[in-house]
Amino acid sequence: MRAGEEGRVTLSLGIWSALCAVTGLACPEEADLSVVTPEPVALVEGQDGAISLPSGLVVRELETLLEPAGVPTQSVKTIRLRYVAEMLEDSERWGVDTIEGDFAQLCHSFGLERRARSAPNATHVIVSIASEPTAFGDSVPQIVQYFDSYTIVDNACIWEG
Fold it and tell me: CA torsion angle for 102, 108, 114, 116 (degrees, to 10)?
């Protein structure tokens, strides 16, 4: 992967072909292999654990899950970053279109760090932000929850769309 202008990343044809084969998506021509990624911003946790995101949303980490659970760190394939932001209760102000860039920043700032520290062979990061804490896997209709998924390629988070 090569960094290009304005935060664009160009994937080599071999990497892109592999991604297409794994996901089952049609592979574009080499000229179409640019993926827009955000310029990583250093996100900092405050003393109270609050993380201010580029959109203005403030989150607190609920938990990090490594999957599959109970396997050696070399066998972990997915890192789940779970956050809580009470501000999401105002879904008109904090809709997914407003905060979508925040997911990539969380992946770049914390997902890649957790991969380096705890799951060196992980290939996916899933980021979720909920308006209230919930147990993993619970569906609570009155709680706003957003999710985004990334593939890790050359130590970068690539949005899975």
Answer: 180
pLDDT at 3 over 50: no
How far is CA 25 from each of CA 6, 22, 30, 101, rounded to the nearest angstrom? 26, 8, 15, 23
Residue 59: CB partners within 8 Å, gap ≥ 6? 50, 51, 53, 83, 84, 85, 102, 106, 129
- Nearest partner of 114 among 72, 76, 153, 71, judged by Cα: 76
pLDDT at 4 over 50: no
Q: What is the mean pLDDT of the chain?
A: 80
CA distances from 118 to 67, 78, 112, 132 (A): 11, 11, 10, 26
Label each residue of 62-130 as H, E or C.
EEEEEECCCCCHHHCCEEEEEEECHHHHCCCCCCHHHHHHHHHHHHHHHHHHHHHHHCCCCCEEEEEEE
pLDDT score of 139: 86
Q: What is the helix (H) or strand (E) element at residue 25, kind and residue range?
A: none
Work out the burial of residue 1: count CB atoms within 10 Å of its CB; fewer than 13 is exposed, 13-18 middle, 19 or more buried. Answer: middle
Query: pLDDT-derived band of residue 48, with 50, 70 and 90 as boundaries?
Result: confident
